[in-house]
Design goal:
Layout lengths: L1 H35 L8 H11 L4 H28 L5 H23 L7 H15 L5 H9 L6 H44 L7
Helix pairs in contact: 1-3, 1-7, 2-3, 3-4, 4-7
Bound molecules: protoporphyrin IX containing FE.
Length: 208
């Protein structure tokens, strides 16, 4: 009975974390769209436009800060979620839907953080990107092909910023929001199932 209660608490925690994940994803996507109104995805222009957002646009600094905190926060929460889900594992259909979507979501937000590296066009971002590109190049057979796709020809310039921005703001962010919804949906269905089995097992201890 103690083990059952422990697993139940873990699964409830996973649902709460999934709600936090969806809230943070929607907040980041919304603030990202607000940033996009003024952000200029070009080499040099990116730095100047983000500086203007922070210093000249009313409440721009706040939107930027919320995007950064929620964007980095969701990476941390999704990693915690994976551990919590692993400990409260159930291996039925709904748990597997939530588990697979949770892992894909985590990979998606890590990629969102990675593609944001060059978006501010600072010295730190530029050189970090150059180093990581060097690592990508060393992948056997496909290394230089992947580098050319990411950079848009090999050199790090405006084309690279545009490629990363497209991946960040369209492909990955839409994917992350869809996966966060599927993840929460799977866990809510699992909650219903848990409630049902708790009532069947012990009618004197129905979970609230
Ligand atoms: C689930 C959706 C999203 C997530 C998780 C996310 C995450 C992030 C992260 C982690 C950063 C780096 C922050 C830092 O540490 O400096 C970032 C930067 C940025 N993101 Fe997003 N993002 C999302 C959606 C979007 C969308 C939809 C857009 C635009 C349409 C966007 C535009 C930007 C821009 C312009 C930056 C650079 C801002 C800066 O460096 O201050 N993001 N994002």
């Amino acid at each position: 009975m103690k083990d059952l209660h422990y697993a139940f608490v873990l699964r409830r925690l996973a649902t709460i974390l999934a709600i936090v994940i969806l809230t943070l994803s929607l907040t980041t996507a919304f603030t990202g769209v607000l940033l996009a109104f003024y952000y200029e995805p070009t080499a040099g222009g990116a730095y100047n436009s983000l500086k203007a957002i922070a210093l000249e646009i009313p409440n721009g600094w706040l939107i930027q800060r919320i995007h950064n905190i929620a964007g980095n926060g969701v990476i941390g929460v999704s990693l915690i979620e994976i551990v919590v889900m692993f400990l409260g594992e159930k291996f039925n259909r709904n748990w597997l839907i939530a588990w697979i979507s949770g892992i894909l979501f985590t990979l998606c937000v890590i990629a969102l953080g990675w593609t944001a590296m060059l978006l501010d066009w600072t010295q730190l971002g530029y050189w970090r990107f150059k180093i990581e590109l060097g690592t990508i190049e060393t992948i056997p057979v496909i290394g230089s092909f992947v580098r050319d796709i990411i950079t848009g020809g090999g050199a790090v310039n405006t084309m690279t910023v545009q490629h990363l921005y497209t991946l960040h703001s369209y492909v990955l962010s839409i994917g992350a929001v869809i996966l966060a919804i599927i993840h929460l949906g799977g866990l809510l269905l699992q909650e219903q199932e848990d409630k049902q089995s708790q009532i069947e097992l012990n009618p004197v201890f129905p979970p609230n």
